[in-house]
Amino acid sequence: MRIHLDGVWKAYGEGPGQFWALRDAHLEVSSQDFLAIIGPSGSGKSTLLHVMGCLDLPTRGELFIDGEPATKKNDRELSHVRRNRIGFIFQQYYLNESMTALQNVLLPLELGKVKDRKRKAEEALDWVDLSTKRGSFPSELSGGEQQRVAIARALANGPEIVLADEPTGSLDSENGKKILETLIGLNREQKVGLVIVTHDAKVAACGTRRIEVRDGRIS
């Protein structure tokens, strides 16, 4: 998979209150890459990730998925890309508190009507070393374990690229280290592309590529 931003600008709001979160962004990421994105708060890092993941479309410029303009895809096609080709991991885990770890991982697979979904969900939890926690609810898990459930949910459908927004930001150093090791293993062992937004210089140093975003511009 190849994601390419060509002169992308992204604005929020209209009129005098309009804010440009991205300005003339040029970037290309492919499967197996490990890109770290750094920059101060409010610089446009998360917006960049959202555009790359087809959660937001550019205001100007173009986003290409495997050479095809994302703006030419309809909602169903964009949903297919988000659900089947890209995995998303956020600082907040966004787990359903009334569901077990296994049910949380199963949910997007069921919505996508994926075959063998229970097996895929179990394998994803096994990969993040949570096979013994399948029946546990989020309230019974530590913060690090909840983030690993979120990672398993992102991996269950076999994405080609995973986009992670501050995945270790709310964790203590020990759990943050474990999560980083899990993500590095994902990239190296499963050859899944990895893009991490981070404030942590140690996390950024693990990437094979690094860019900085400041005032909406990539450098």
Task: Describe the overall structure.
With 219 residues, this protein is an alpha/beta fold. It has helices at 45-52, 75-84, 101-111, 117-127, 143-155, 173-189, 201-205; strands at residues 2-12, 19-30, 34-38, 60-65, 68-69, 86-90, 161-165, 193-197, 209-214, 217-218. The chain has a 6-stranded mixed β-sheet with strand order 6-7-8-3-9-10, sandwiched between helices. The chain has a 4-stranded antiparallel β-sheet with strand order 2-1-4-5, covered by helices on one side. A hairpin with a 2-residue loop joins β4 and β5 (68-69). α3 runs parallel beside α5 (143-155), α4 (117-127) crosses α5 and α5 runs parallel beside α6. The relative contact order is 0.21. The model has no long low-confidence stretch (mean pLDDT 93).
Could you tell me the strand content as a percent range? Answer: 25-35%
Rg (CA only): 17 Å
Q: How many angstroms separate the termini? A: 23 Å
Q: Unreliable segments (pLDDT under 50, ≥5 consecutive)?
A: none
- Adjacency order of strands in the biggest sheet: 6-7-8-3-9-10
With helices defined by DSSP (H or I, 4 residues minimum), what is the helix count? 7
Can you tell me the overall shape?
globular
Largest sheet: 6 strands, mixed
Short description:
The chain has 219 residues and is α/β, with parallel strands linked by helices. It contains seven helices and ten strands.
